[in-house]
Design brief:
alpha/beta
């Protein structure tokens, strides 16, 4: 990849492909496309690696016994960089098909708007991932960054030797609680049901930690604090009782949701906002593909994101060959 922050060639160049998102899916597409000799620009609004940057440890990717999310993201960057993909840290705000552009007589050129500038490509891979879900409590936004956090790995160290609560029952909540148990004096794991959705292996590790306590059948209903979070109000949905829990931090790990609305004109979205794709990761618009967590699928893991990235890239190459052969 060209250097971080290097200005991409707005309006002067038509890339073979623009990739939206530099997570596992997007970077895999970039690697395959560069190896096929295609010009590639990747837009990323946050960090290379996407959500995985915030994972303490990855231990389910074939061939890698254990790696931190940060090291894995660095490796993604190095690989795409060595192959010559361009990367720009800009948020894409619009995507449309440009029927004609001066000097271009072929239809189907995509126009991508990012940070107010327009960029052009013959094909696009949307690999925009997901964003954190919020509890939806009235005080949540005001206390975000003041005790309420969506990333234990980023913010956990601020609560060294203090009390933290994690809400959620999936792998993220379990991994967050495990990480925090090595940083905080006490960790509460609050889940709305009696069994966890996440892996048994993680539940077992947590149950052996003396400073971790499970609070099950429970929902966080209220956040209290002025300058920072001091306590949360919990509703036990088994007993119907409310209780107050004093805590310095609340890590919200209740899943993620897509943010695909700015692509909605060119792709079909399901009821949950995920992009509907066909087997080759192609969407309803020719030349427009979707890969990774942002598309409708059953299993969202690194390995399936990488698979999507490769499938989408092969589809792009076939599409470009057809386009250039016309
Ligand atoms: P997830 O698997 O969707 O779990 C979300 C959890 O939050 C569920 O337990 C859910 O409860 C709970 N929840 C949802 N909405 C809630 C609300 N409004 N209030 C309270 N609780 C709520 O999400 P995730 O844990 O972020 O994981 C996402 C994907 O990434 C999964 O496929 C996961 O396996 C993967 N992941 C993998 C690793 C790894 O180490 N390999 C690490 C992190 C994530 P219910 O169970 O009752 O629905």
């Amino acid at each position: 990849m060209e250097k971080y922050g290097k200005e991409p060639k707005a309006e002067t160049v038509i890339y073979d492909s623009i990739i939206i998102g530099a997570g596992t899916a997007g970077i895999t597409s970039a690697v395959y496309l560069r190896r096929a000799g295609k010009t590639v620009l990747i837009f990323e609004k946050q960090a290379v690696g996407g959500q995985i940057v915030f994972s303490h440890k990855i231990e389910n990717y074939p061939g890698i016994k254990s790696i931190s999310g940060g090291d894995y993201a660095d490796a993604l960057y190095e690989q795409a960089s060595a192959l010559g993909a361009e990367l720009a840290f800009k948020a894409v705000t619009d995507l449309s098909v440009c029927p004609s552009k001066s000097g271009i007589d072929k239809p189907g050129i995509f126009k991508i708007t990012a940070d107010g500038k327009e960029y052009f490509a013959k094909s696009v891979v949307i690999a925009a991932g997901l964003r954190h879900k919020k509890l939806g409590l009235p005080e949540e936004s005001a206390l975000a960054g003041l005790g309420v956090s969506y990333c234990a790995l980023c913010d956990g160290a601020f609560f060294k030797n203090q009390t933290a609560a994690v809400v959620g029952g999936g792998n993220t909540a379990l991994s967050d609680a495990l990480f925090l148990s090595s940083v905080c004096k006490k960790v509460y794991l609050i889940h709305r049901r009696g069994t966890f959705r996440g892996e048994e292996r993680l539940v077992k590790s947590l149950s052996h930690k003396p400073n971790v306590e499970f609070i099950l059948h429970s929902e966080v209903k209220e956040l209290s604090g002025g300058q920072s979070l001091t306590a949360i109000r919990i509703f036990n949905n088994n007993s119907g009782e409310y209780s107050e829990l004093k805590t310095d931090a609340l890590f919200v790990a209740i899943g993620q949701k897509p943010s695909n609305s700015c692509f909605g004109g060119l792709v079909g979205l399901d009821d949950d906002g995920f992009i509907i794709t066909q087997q080759a990761c192609n969407t309803k618009t020719d030349g427009l593909f979707a890969a990774g967590d942002c598309r409708q699928k059953q299993i969202r893991q690194l390995v399936t994101a990488a698979a999507d990235g490769a499938i989408a890239a092969v589809g792009v190459v076939e599409y470009l060959n057809r386009l250039d052969g016309d």
